[in-house]
Specification:
The protein is α+β, with helices and mostly antiparallel strands and 186 residues long. The protein has one domain: Heat Shock Protein 90, CATH 3.30.565.10. Helices cover 39% and strands 22% of the residues. It has 6 helices and 6 strands, in the order H-H-E-H-E-H-H-E-E-H-E-E. Strands 1-2-3-4-6-5 form a 6-stranded antiparallel beta sheet. Helix 4 runs antiparallel to helix 5 (80-101).
């Protein structure tokens, strides 16, 4: 299975028309540390705009996922501010799905799609957990002393303040969260 996955990556990455060194870095970062992470829409990757990954609901998968996403953004020359916003959203939203989305202890998969366009980046996180719309969470009361605030809720708040747009939809038995971050061109 992993051998097939490596072969698919090796076939798809040259289509990105990157320098050989960039291809090797991207390949290493996609594969490093996670045999379970795999491309699930390789055809879109060939279009040089989309990276799709699926990861199991384990916290130790977030690091390899974030590294692969960062390498993909770097290969598209995404500015540091947009990269930071995408990374924050990716890590916060996927960790929330892992920690709160599945209570049965079974293995589940979370889909992540990154679309890099000329002026914006769209991050889609999709899971099959119970319905949960993070846009319905109340904003934390930042005027209260820290010791009087409930635990949790700041991560989603920070994501909402950092990204340009956040949309949620429940489609069948899937939660789909779409994040838009505008690119800053210098």
């Amino acid at each position: 299975m992993l051998t097939d996955f490596k072969m698919e990556i090796d076939l798809a990455l040259p289509a990105l028309r990157l320098r050989p060194r960039s291809i090797m870095r991207l390949r290493r970062k996609i594969l490093w540390g996670s045999t379970a992470a795999r491309l699930y829409c390789l055809g879109s990757l060939v279009n040089m705009e989309t990276l799709c990954l699926t990861v199991p609901n384990r916290l130790d998968e977030i690091g390899p996922l974030a590294r692969g996403a960062a390498a993909f953004l770097e290969s598209h020359h995404v500015d540091p501010d947009a990269t930071f916003a995408v990374d924050l959203a990716l890590e916060e939203l996927v960790s929330n799905v892992i920690k709160h989305g599945y209570k049965d202890g079974d293995s589940h998969h979370i889909g992540v799609q990154l679309d890099v366009g000329q002026d914006k980046i769209i991050l889609v996180v999709e899971d099959s957990g119970p319905p949960f719309n993070p846009l319905e969470l109340p904003e934390p009361d930042l005027d209260k002393p820290v010791e009087q605030r409930p635990i949790g809720g700041l991560g989603v708040f920070l994501v909402r303040k950092t990204v340009d747009r956040m949309e949620y939809e429940r489609l069948g038995n899937r939660n789909i969260l779409r994040i838009t971050v505008h690119r800053r061109h210098e």
